[in-house]
Specification:
2 strands, Protein Binding, DinI Protein, Chain A, two-stranded parallel sheet, single chain
Length: 186
């Protein structure tokens, strides 16, 4: 008798464990129905939102201004090189070396400034992306909470790493996030 009641208890315990590990089909579907997943393309939010476009335009304008300065320096270098070639035959060896040293010094300064510009531009781009990713995250969280989404994933794009290979169109929250982002970031 004791042995059979232990066996019954063990059987009930195993059955309960199996139910916990493998829930009934009805409970799976209700869990799946309460789980909503969405996708967002942050790059698209940055490019299509008003605040994002303003920031990207400001960064582009800054880069163009610096590139104009660099182009002027490059023209000066080309002119100096042309003068050096034209005057080469009429200059003494010491004058040639002096002009070549001047050219080399200006070229090194130009290269140093170009490298500094590229580093500065990369830094500004990184700051912009980091700042806007935080803001996009806040807007995404707001949209997800309003819509009852459990998780929202970065779907990526052709310009970035594509994380989501397929998603149903109704799950794409990008347009809603753009609207929320514009509402908060005027």
């Amino acid at each position: 008798m004791v042995r059979s009641s232990a066996l019954v208890a063990l059987t009930i315990g195993l059955a309960f464990a199996v139910l916990l590990l493998f829930p009934l089909p009805g409970s799976i579907s209700s869990a799946a129905e309460s789980f909503k997943m969405g996708v967002v393309d942050p790059q698209e939010v940055l490019e299509k939102s008003k605040a994002g476009r303003r920031a990207l335009d400001a960064l582009k304008e800054y880069a163009m201004t610096k590139q104009k300065v660099m182009a002027t320096d490059e023209e000066e270098l080309k002119s100096l090189e042309k003068q050096l070639k034209e005057q080469e035959s009429s200059l003494s060896e010491s004058q040639k070396r002096e002009k070549q040293n001047q050219f080399r010094t200006k070229l090194q300064e130009y290269q140093r400034r170009a490298q500094e510009f590229n580093q500065e531009l990369s830094g500004k781009q990184k700051e912009l992306v980091d700042d806007y990713m935080k803001r996009i995250g806040v807007a995404t969280r707001t949209v997800a909470e309003k819509g009852g989404f459990s998780i929202v994933v970065d779907k990526g794009s052709d310009n970035t790493i594509r994380i989501v290979l397929y998603s149903k169109g109704v799950l794409d929250l990008t347009d809603q996030v753009i609207k929320e982002f514009d509402r908060v970031n005027k």
